[in-house]
Amino acid sequence: MRSFLVDTLGVADAFAVVWFLAAWIGYGWFSERSRWAQNGLQDVGDQHRLRWARQLVRREMRMTDAALVGNLMQSVSFYASTTIYIIAGLLALLGTLDQVIRFASDLPFARESSRALWELKLLLLLGVFVFAYFKFTWALREFNLLSILIGGTPWMRAGEDDARAEAAAQRLGKVNSLAGDDFNRGIRAYYFGLAAVAWFIQPGLFIGLTTVIVIVLYRRDFASPTLEAFRAEE
Q1: Where are the alpha helices (DSSP H) in 58-161?
Q2: pTM for this one?
Q3: CB-based burial of residue 117 (10 Å sphere; 0-12 exposed, 13-18 middle, 19+ buried)?
Q4: How many Å apart are CA 18 and CA 159, to the nearest integer?
Q5: pLDDT in tens, 116-170
Q6: Quick check: helix, strand or coil at residue 6?
Q7: Within 10 A of 204 (CB to CB), how many other CB atoms are there?
Q8: Measured between alpha carbons, how far is 93 from 138 in angstroms, rounded to an integer?
Q9: Biggest CA pair distance of the chain
């Protein structure tokens, strides 16, 4: 695999692609599955989703909850629609690649590349946004299923049938968290898609911007004022 990448892309481009994929996959694992993930914004957000669910099952009137889920669905739908336009634009670029190459060759610090390498760059970028589209559409369906669960969850008075209420809250919180996690993965793909654009200029810039994206994501997920506000005790 390593020899294939080097022979096809060259040392600099091959290293840039490997670094990009390692950063994307590695940060996803770090922020979701590592032992440090429990201190991150995603895990703390999941705890608040469970608290929301516990409040929901005790409320007889749930118009506010339905409105909140509708707002979440609207946000995901916006990103899904935007992503399909980006994918269409990238497919259109594949048909006008010669003009794109001529335009890019005039950019400062641009590096001369073969048409085959340009096609690989476009395909990588296309793959990133196809991944994002799948995540957004699946998150949208999960939020749709959450709305069905809310509609089917009976009102449980405070102090009555606590075990059943907790089971319902756990179910609601889990589906809400799964939808939110997939939405976060789609957003993360957007960030790394911005890094992939830099490959069209130079592999060194691609590596540098990928590193910057990881730092930005880490600061927002593990060292942001928003996280501190979420952690604040009532």
Answers
A1: 63-95, 97-105, 115-152
A2: 0.88
A3: middle
A4: 55
A5: 788 888 999 999 999 999 999 999 999 999 999 998 888 887 767 778 888 999 9
A6: helix
A7: 14
A8: 27
A9: 72
